[in-house]
Amino acid sequence: MLTSDPLFSVDGKVVIISGAGSGFGRTIALALAERGASVGVLDITQKAAEETTALITAAGGRAITLVADTRDPELVEKCVQDVIAKFGVPQIVVASAGIGRRSPAIEMTSQTWQDVIDVNLNGAWNLAQATGRAMITTNTQGSIIFISSIAALVGLPNGNANYSASKGAVHALMRTLAIEWATKGVRVNAIAPTHFRTPLIVASIKENPEGEAFFKANIPMGRMGEPEEIVGSIIYLASQASSMVTGTVLVVDGGHTAR
């Protein structure tokens, strides 16, 4: 187990992470467990969630597998209750589950639009509401972190209207919850990464091999991010190091939005 400055400690904290079977979610789950947190590993795919849980427990950490479609509020609530029964009320929540369905705007079907909104916005809302309720009703101080995207801050080409809209809405939701829960001991923030080498981006590059060069060209640091590079931002927002931080978007983009 890693030790750290108490200011940045998550040791002994209870965590629930959606989309924890792969990508950012898995990376964050492993990092927080390594630092002493008990982790609820939530994913829509049971095998993926079990793999993350196995990696955590094999390293001596504590985790529970949770399987649910975050679009279903009842299933999300059950997962939260399972975490409470196993470890206690979640104190750190990371809404990382997300999808992309690209299509030119004039050709996008209502289903393609709605699929992305349902997962990226409604799924994030369901997790935030269920965990926020648990924190507030038990007087538990906590931190809710939405994994957003620079797509909420800058326009993206190539059929991303639904994705960009979903992430922009997440920012609006985050700010509203931050204000509503500010006196309840629950902080709410978002992280907006640029193009990182996650399964979602890797799949996009496979569809369009020129995509990686495009991504790199838009990042002043000249490279895509690696999933592990999100961990520091998560630990900051999850810990007492950010005790006065709520309602903000932490941009992790290699200078992308500084242009």
User: Radius of gyration in whole Å, from Cα?
Assistant: 17 Å
In one word, what is the shape?
globular
> What is the number of strand segments?
7
- Strand order, sheet with most strands: 3-2-1-4-5-6-7
Elements, N to C (H/E): EHEHEHEHEHEHHHE
The parts where pLDDT drops under 50 for at least 5 residues are none
The computed structural class is alpha/beta
Instruction: Determine the CATH topology.
Output: Rossmann fold
CATH architecture: 3-Layer(aba) Sandwich
End-to-end distance, in Å? Answer: 40 Å
Determine the strand fraction and express it as a percent band: 15-25%
Under CATH, the homologous superfamily reads NAD(P)-binding Rossmann-like Domain
Main attributes of the structure:
259 residues; alpha/beta; Rossmann fold; seven-stranded parallel β-sheet; 8 helices; 7 strands; 43% helix
Question: What can you see in these coordinates?
Answer:
The protein is built from 8 helices and 7 strands; from the N terminus they run βαβαβαβαβαβαααβ. The chain has a single domain, classed as NAD(P)-binding Rossmann-like Domain (Rossmann fold). The chain is an alpha/beta fold. Helix 1 (23-34) links the parallel strand 1 and strand 2 (38-43). The longest helix has 28 residues, at 110-137. It is 43% helix and 15% strand.
In short:
With 259 residues, the chain is α/β, with parallel strands linked by helices. Helix content is 43%, strand content 15%. It has helices spanning 23-34, 46-58, 73-86, 110-137, 161-180, 199-207, 211-217, 231-238, and strands at residues 14-18, 38-43, 62-67, 92-95, 142-147, 186-193, 249-252.
